[in-house]
Amino acid sequence: MKSNARIGILTAGGDCPGLNAAIRGVAKAAMHYGMTVVGIRDGFRGLVENRTMPIDNPLVSGILTQGGTFLGSSRDRPHKMKVNGRNVDMTSAAVRTYRKLRLDCLVCLGGNGTQKSALALRENGGIDVLTLPKTIDNDVAETEITFGFDSAMSIATEAIDRLHTTATSHQRIIVCEVMGHDAGWLCLGSGIAGGADVILIPEIPYDLSAVVRHLVRRNKAGKRFSIVAVAEGIASMGEAAARSEAGGKAGAHRSAPPHLEAFAAPGTEGIRLVQEPVSSRIARQLQQLTGTEARVTSLGHVQRGGSPTPFDRLLCTRLGTKAVELISRGRFNVMVAIKANECVPVSLEKVAGRKRTVPPDHPWVQTARLTETCLGDQ
Ligand code: F6P
User: What is the mean pLDDT of the chain?
Assistant: First the structure.
């Protein structure tokens, strides 16, 4: 690879703590190798619309600890971009910008959608790409962890800790809704770490009567409160059966995050209305069936804000610098994954279009069961 290579970098999909740390890792390592870095604004839309900014050393100084992404992000996909309300294939415009900027590689930081878009640009646009696995959902295939997950898990855990004290004081059930789309990693991880009494995840369809029995048993044992952690993508056994009969995969419930499954009134296309969060429904049912007062806390985007944990700062810096090392060796069209705690390249074809959900026999599931946690199924 030539030493004066030019790298484009963009951040796409939902933001998370650690994006700035990863951009910094890429930029500092690139400068170390004598490469030039060009920032692309607002995800793939910035690439299509040629919205860029130079990235120099002062710009990436002091951003290791900052949340969000200074480049901006969007959920736009180059091969299916909304233009005047219609989905248009803008691959050629994206490639035009890439060529105009004389880039040798485009580094894309994102989750599952980004992995797919990067591969599509490679296959249909013929450009060289390299990706990093980012998402609080931790559901990217072929990597043991994604960056952003640890920070979000620490926020959700702290929330569950705090809910314990108020739930005890008032002898209530508190239902805490955790993000994660169709994957239960965030809810399961923070639920175990925070000592939730019930943890419901999309991969294990729940039976409400099993949850009620567990809460009543706790009450009879003198425990005067209960914390119920629910992932936003959960489904009851009945809902899961209906979905799989309708042809859906078990555990994969929706194409859009539950709270985005909105109903736009005619003429308000693009405006999302928020439906009743799943946690409200569960709290209402549990209050009715147990006779114990219930409250709801939906953590929402709080889980995506603020400074990354030390673990994520280290992970992002490792992934970002490894990306540049791979580029310096002419290794493209891969995602930098974590396997056995090492940063390794994995072919994008293996990653794109697949999701890593919680296997029902995962050790964390067993850990939860062995610590008297109800997972809603027994
Ligand atoms: O993928 C990250 C995530 O935070 C999911 O956990 C959640 O379902 C979704 O994004 C929320 O998306 P948005 O920020 O577009 O509302």
Answer: 93
